Q: What sequence folds into this?
């Protein structure tokens, strides 16, 4: 059961004058997937609040405020409109956890990348070997691992853990890149962004939401692998557009729009436009490849790819309204350096 959005832009080929950076993004970004949301969103939001309190993560008032501004259950709902309540809850919990973990890693890594090592090694030990946690963040991750192992098949749980370890490693690369006063070029920025996007750990949950398990051959199909990459990139680059003002203010460097700004020595507005073009190309390739590959896929394979498309759609509609990126609507076009 899903609910359809009324009155929202589905595609953005029409060029109209843009008053703000948010307007600029919305009028130029190609979004072929309509808004959908999960009817269990409010239930998942309450579950996230309860889980974070039980883990002790919102004992810090700043974390509680951050969660209120990021709305993890809303993002899960938009990304997984057809997920059953159990999978939706795991997805929402993990989104909340990753926001807390990512913000903590960014804060520590900015001071000195080496200080991240205990935090990252604890996470890898939990994901790889099931080691007992020693911190509240580690305890939250261990509980997420338990949830995934109880709900997913062993192969799905292993894919989840592997993608999670890749995400953890990427945070160290991001911290090192932050030390370069010039910032990384577009190629290096997108490589790091693909690691720290944190999207691919959710694809095994998309699998688990299906009525059966995909075959290894279908998961390894070259086109399906390419679709995974395209969807993960588009899904994380879209929030980069809406977060560019915030990231520039805080000195962030791993952001597609800011990478184009540095590379071309242009204004932030021009950097956003260049990033939008790349995202449009990525979404266009995803659409074409899906159409071409669909006849070769099983019903489960088609459902899996639709789950990937859900992350592109969901990240867009969530980014447009989430308080975390409210600055984007407040900045007039033409005032951006």
A:
């Amino acid at each position: 059961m899903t609910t359809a959005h009324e009155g929202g832009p589905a595609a953005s080929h029409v060029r109209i004058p843009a008053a703000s950076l948010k307007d600029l993004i919305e009028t130029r970004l190609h979004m072929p997937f309509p808004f959908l949301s999960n009817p269990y969103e409010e239930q998942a939001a309450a579950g996230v609040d309860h889980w974070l309190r039980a883990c002790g993560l919102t004992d810090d008032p700043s974390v509680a405020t951050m969660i209120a501004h990021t709305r993890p259950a809303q993002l899960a709902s938009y990304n997984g409109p057809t997920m059953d309540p159990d999978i939706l809850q795991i997805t929402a919990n993990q989104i909340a956890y990753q926001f807390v973990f990512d913000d903590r890693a960014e804060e520590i890594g900015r001071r000195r990348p080496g200080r991240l090592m205990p935090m990252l090694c604890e996470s890898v030990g939990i994901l790889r070997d099931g080691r007992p946690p020693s911190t509240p963040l580690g305890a939250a991750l261990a509980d997420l691992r338990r949830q995934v192992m109880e709900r997913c098949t062993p192969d799905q749980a292993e894919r989840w853990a592997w993608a999670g370890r890749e995400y953890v490693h990427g945070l160290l690369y991001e911290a090192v890149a932050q030390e370069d006063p010039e910032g990384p070029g577009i190629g290096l920025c997108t490589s790091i962004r693909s690691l720290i996007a944190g999207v691919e750990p959710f694809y095994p949950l998309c699998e688990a939401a299906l009525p059966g398990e995909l075959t290894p051959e279908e998961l390894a199909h070259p086109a399906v692998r390419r679709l995974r990459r395209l969807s993960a990139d588009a899904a994380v680059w879209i929030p980069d557009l809406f977060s560019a003002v915030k990231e520039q203010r805080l000195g962030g460097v791993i952001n597609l729009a800011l990478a184009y700004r540095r590379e071309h020595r242009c204004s932030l507005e021009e950097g956003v436009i260049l990033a939008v073009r790349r995202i449009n190309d990525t979404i266009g390739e995803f659409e074409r490849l899906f159409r071409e590959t669909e006849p070769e896929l099983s019903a489960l394979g088609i459902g899996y790819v639709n789950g990937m498309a859900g992350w592109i759609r969901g990240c867009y509609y969530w980014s447009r309204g989430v308080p975390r990126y409210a600055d984007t609507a407040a900045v007039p076009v033409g005032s951006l350096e």
The domain at 20-330 is CATH 1.10.600.10 (Farnesyl Diphosphate Synthase). Confidence is low (pLDDT under 50) at residues 1-16.
